[in-house]
Amino acid sequence: MTVSTENWLNTEKERLSKLSDNIFKVGSTLQILSRLAWPLSIKDEFFKNSAQRLPQVEYERFDALPVINVLNEVEEQLGDTPVDDWFRKQIEGYSNAANMLQFRGTQHFYDYSKLLYGKPTDPLRDEKTNSLGLAKRYLELLQPINKMKLAKPPEVCILAETLAERMKQATKTMFGDEAPDIQIVDDLSANALASSERVRIRRTASFSDNDIEQLVEHEIHIHVATMLNGKTKGNLSLLGLAHPSSTKTQEGLAVFAEYITSTLDLARMSRLADRVIATQMTIDGANFIDIYRYYLDKTDNPSQSYENTRRVFRGGVVEGRAPFTKDIVYLDGLLRVHNFLKAAVNAGRADSIHLLFAGRLDIEDLPVFSYLRALGLCQKPRFLPPWAKDLRILLCYLSYSSFLNTIDMSKVFKHYEDLLKDVGEVY
User: Fold this and answer.
1) Considering only CA atoms, which of 119, 107, 116, 118 is closest in space to residue 27?
2) Is residue 393 packed enough to be buried (19+ CB in 10 Å), middle (13-18) or exposed (0-12)?
3) Distance between CA 81 and CA 371 in Å, rounded?
4) b/e sequence 310-332, b meaning 16+ C-beta within 10 Å
5) If 0-12 CB within 10 Å is exposed, 13-18 middle and 19+ buried, where does residue 402 land?
6) Which of 26-40, 141-155, 275-289, 383-397 has the highest average model confidence (pLDDT)?
7) DSSP for residue 123
8) Angle formed at CA 163 by CA 160 and CA 169, multiple of 5 degrees
9) Do residues 294 and 325 make contact, with C-beta atoms less than 8 angstroms apart?
10) pTM for the whole thing?
11) In this structure, are residues 185 and 201 in contact, taking their beta carbons and an 8 Å threshold?
12) Do 38 and 187 contact (CB within 8 A), yes or no?
């Protein structure tokens, strides 16, 4: 490396790091899910009124303008490299997030939510299907399965304290001294939420044995790991910060982790599909009580039905037509990640898989992360889930799955459907 080249590299790294830090300072203040949370008192009031009255939710005022002004100042300093283009993408995402937070409780909230996370009818990568159609199809496939006398689902009777102990073990084993703090809290927008500093568990939530392992795979082995990897010394600061554009990939990777470790069960997949259906119902005009009853018909569990419904309406309008659309990303993200992994193997690029864990990224950003690696601003991931650390089993599955894609299954399905007509019901 010549002196002039080394000088340019150092100058460029310093420039990009400074820009990243400036965006990081703004993005880290938004805390979207925390600002959308509902206090426990709203749930108590809902059931005090026999689930017959719409919740009344108030949000603290949030002014998006100071955030957007700072981001605009940063954008004016950007150049024309792939990393600068990636910065523009992050700035746009954080600007939309700030506007979304400002318009909580109004119809405009949905306008920005769908910019950040999409909507159920958006076309997927094949440009033929969408999340809504896939969710409906999956639930249709489950109808005959639900009639079968399968083993009883595991009991949901394990308290938050037990999950906390399991997570402490898992984080200590994987991250050592960098393990996040495990906390049990009263108000939370999900059963558990993870960051690199802490993992919060809702005190009133109950879990099954499978739920616990599922949450370890999802929250610890993916969300905590990718964030800590992003914060590796020498990385751009933005690699360790959650940003809206990475949500589909991050949640998709986390659900795929459940799938590949056999902790993703029928009930969980049904919930992911139902989230898409409930979001579209709300867009079409269903109110909070309508969605609550939709879930209650499925689960016969008032508390869980409320929590499922709250996820759709947090930040939006309880009368309907303005949901928080983040819940559609789980099914969409799972498909994106799964298809990417198969395509990577099919293209002879299985070497790229570990890059997914290098930080908080969107699959579409992989070329940018490769560019950053060449600059020395994106290090190899230090923490990998067990199923990704040794790729032999994963690659066996992906290569076989990719091989199956070469077969026209329509005639195969027709053959076995005809065969099964002469087979009596076993259950």
Assistant:
1) 116
2) exposed
3) 10
4) bbbbbbbbbebebbbbbbbbbbb
5) middle
6) 275-289
7) B
8) 145
9) no
10) 0.94
11) yes
12) yes
Provide the residue type at 135 as one letter: A
- Angle at alpha carbon of residue 97, lines to 93 and 99, rounded to 5°: 120
In 3-state terms, the chain is what percent helix, strand and coil (to 5)? 65, 5, 30
Q: What is the C-alpha to C-alpha distance for residues 400 and 281, in angstroms, rounded to an integer?
A: 37
Query: What is the residue whose two structure tokens read 């299907």?
Result: 129
Torsion on CA atoms 232, 238, 242, 244, rounded to nearest 10: -150
d(CA 222, CA 192): 13
Query: Nearest to residue 37, comparing CAs of 201, 187, 203, 186?
Result: 187
How confident is the model over 339-393, as pLDDT tens digits? 999 999 999 999 999 999 999 999 999 999 999 999 999 999 999 999 999 899 9
Do you know the residue count of the chain? 427
Collect contacts of 414-417 with beta carbons under 8 A, ≥24 apart: none
pLDDT tens-place string over residues 267-304 = 999 999 999 999 999 999 999 999 999 999 998 999 99
Q: At what angle do helices 329-346 and 131-146 cross, to 10 degrees?
A: 100
